[in-house]
Write a structure and sequence with these properties.
Order of helices and strands of chain B: EEEEEEEEEEE
Order of helices and strands of chain A: EEEEEEEEEEE
Radius of gyration of chain B: 14 Å
Mean pLDDT of chain B: 93
Radius of gyration of chain A: 14 Å
Oligomer: heterodimer
Number of helices of chain B: 0
Number of strands of chain B: 11
Strand content of chain B: over 45%
Strand content of chain A: over 45%
């Protein structure tokens, strides 16, 4: 149980285009999902917390108009990188928090999406 | 703000030896401490976690210890194998402003290399 998928696994796009990344919890309902960004040889940096049915909470320094997050259902959250630029190239990873009735606070991560902006 | 320090940044051991990775956290309200293993090009995988009401937890070759007073927690891997080679991240929970959701603050990672 507690499987999280991401799609696509890799994407290459031209500068100025928008890219959508999907995160799905496959065998549980996740009221809360998290989006992280990871640069090479660095740690995971939390970008935003996504709660189903409400607006995402962004970390300081993350542009909410550039990184659009939608959590329309209990199993799906999407991250859209708008007007992507080369500096947005990174490894984007989502995680989903298991229901409180299971255990408290556990997060399971997706396999990540490698974004390359040319 | 909340900070998690992790040491060492790299660790090389011989197969069969033990490996220890240490983390310290700053927020005394943190109550959940997971450890993740990340292989190259993949997402982090939860390998063990510990809650603040427990001092030690063990799962086969992996164990985690927590010292709440000192705000330290450590990962111990015994009888290391080449397949244990990866980057390991510790994390500490931090309560969000809604009072119900916890986010994780990650350490900087430890690259573990197990030499056959």
């Amino acid at each position: 149980g507690a499987v999280v998928s991401q799609h696509p696994s890799r994407v290459i796009c031209k500068s100025g285009t928008s890219v959508k990344i999907e995160c799905r919890s496959l065998d549980f309902q996740a009221t809360t999902m998290f989006w992280y960004r990871q640069f090479p040889k660095q740690s995971l940096m939390l970008m935003a917390t996504s709660n189903e049915g409400s607006k995402a909470t962004y970390e300081q320094g993350v542009e909410k108009d550039k990184f659009l997050i939608n959590h329309a259902s209990l199993t799906l959250s999407t991250l859209t990188v708008t007007s992507a630029h080369p500096e947005d190239s990174s490894f984007y990873i989502c995680s989903a928090r298991v229901p409180v009735t299971w255990t408290y606070n556990e997060q399971f991560f997706g396999p990540g999406t490698r974004l390359t902006v040319l | 703000g909340e900070n998690v320090e992790q040491h060492p940044s790299t660790l090389s051991v011989q197969e069969g030896d033990s490996a220890v990775i240490k983390c310290t956290y700053s927020d005394s309200a943190s109550n959940y401490f997971p450890w993740y293993k990340q292989e190259l090009g993949k997402g982090p995988q939860l390998i063990i976690d510990i809650r603040s009401n427990v001092g030690e937890k063990k799962d086969q070759r992996i164990a985690v210890t927590l010292n709440k007073t000192a705000k330290h927690f450590s990962l111990h891997i015994t009888e290391t194998q080449p397949e244990d080679s990866a980057v390991y991240f510790c994390a500490a929970s931090m309560r969000l402003s809604d009072g119900a959701t916890n986010k994780l603050i990650f350490g900087t990672g430890t690259l573990l290399a197990v030499q056959p």
